[in-house]
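User: quick one, fold this
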Amino acid sequence: MINRMSSQQLAFLVFLLMLGSALIYVPESMTRQDAWISSLLASLVGLYILWAILFIQKKYPGISIFKISEVVLGRITGKIFNAFYVWLLIVVSMLYLYDIAAFLMLIFPDLPYSILYAIVLLLAAYLLYQGPGIIGRLGESLVFLTLFLVLLGLGMTATSAQWSNLSPVLSDWKPVLAGAIYGANWPYAEVSAFALFLPLLNDLQEKSHKIYIWYLIAVIVLVLRSVMVIATLGPEYTQLSRFPLFSSMRLVRFTHFQRVELFFILLWFITGFSAIAIFYQSLMLALKDFFKLRTYRPLILPTAALLIALCQCSFAANTTFLQFETSVVTFHSLPIHLIYVSAVLLGVVIHPRLTGSG
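Assistant:
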C-alpha cells in the first residue's frame, strides 16, 4: 500500500475536488447574473479552511487531525467532534455518488442507479486498496488534461455568449450573500476533507504554497464557469437547468461538428469521479483513525455497500435529491466544516505542542 504523497500531488487533488461536480452545475445560480460574485465570496470560506488545516498540520507534522482533536479538545469532546466529522464525510460522499450517477444516466439511461453506484464505487475501491498515494498519482496524471479541456470548453462556450445576460451587476446584495453561503458549502468548504491526507505528505513544510496556488486556479476556473454559463444560457435557464454547463456546451456549433459537448463527457467524468474517490479515501482514513485501526482495507467494501444503500433509500427521485441538497445540506454541512476545523484550530493555538507522530 502506497501511503505517501507530495504537496504537489495534493495540490492537484485540491484542484480536481474543487471542480468536482460543481463544474457542470452552478451552485450559486440562485443569484442569477451575480453568480460569479457569489462564487468569489464563497471561495474565501474555503481559503480559511485550507489555511486552518495547513496551520494545524504544520504545528503537528505527521499526526492525524483526529488524534490532535482528542488531545487539544479533550478525549471525549474530541471523539464527539470526530464522530460528527465522520458523519459529514458520509453525507458528502453520498451526494457526490448521486451526482456522478445522475450525470451518467444521461449516457446510460437504461441502467438503474444501483448499478451505476456500484460501478463508480468499485472503481474507486480498487484505487483505495492500492493506498492514498495512488489517488495522488491519479491526480498528477489527470490534472493538466482536465485543465486543458476546461479552458477549451469555456473558450468554445464563449462563442455563444450574450454578454448582456451579465447585467445589471449587484442589483440586490441579499441573493448574492445567499448564493455565497450555498457556494461556500459546495464546493469550497469541502477542502476540509484534505485534513485527513495532510499527515501523509512528505514535504508539507517546504511546499505548502503549491496547494494554495492550485486552490486559487480552481477558484478562477469556477468563476469563469459561472460567467460563461450565465452569459450563454441567461440567468433564468441556468436556474432551471439540471446541468447548466452541459446545456451551454450543447449550443456550440461548428461547420462540420455538432454535439461538441460529447467531447467533454470525459472531463465531467474525471472531475466527478475524482471528487467521489477523494471523499471515499478521506472517509476511509477517518474511520481508520476514529477506530484506531492498523489499516482501513477491511472497511472499503462494507462502506461502499453502506453508501449505495443510503443513496437508494435517501434519493428515490431527482427532486428528492435537489430538495435535500438545497434546503438541508447547506445548513447541516457548512457548520460542521467550519466548527470542526475552527475548534481544533483554537485548541491547537492554546494547547502545548504534541510530540511524536502517528
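User: anything notable?
Assistant: The chain has a mean pLDDT of 90.
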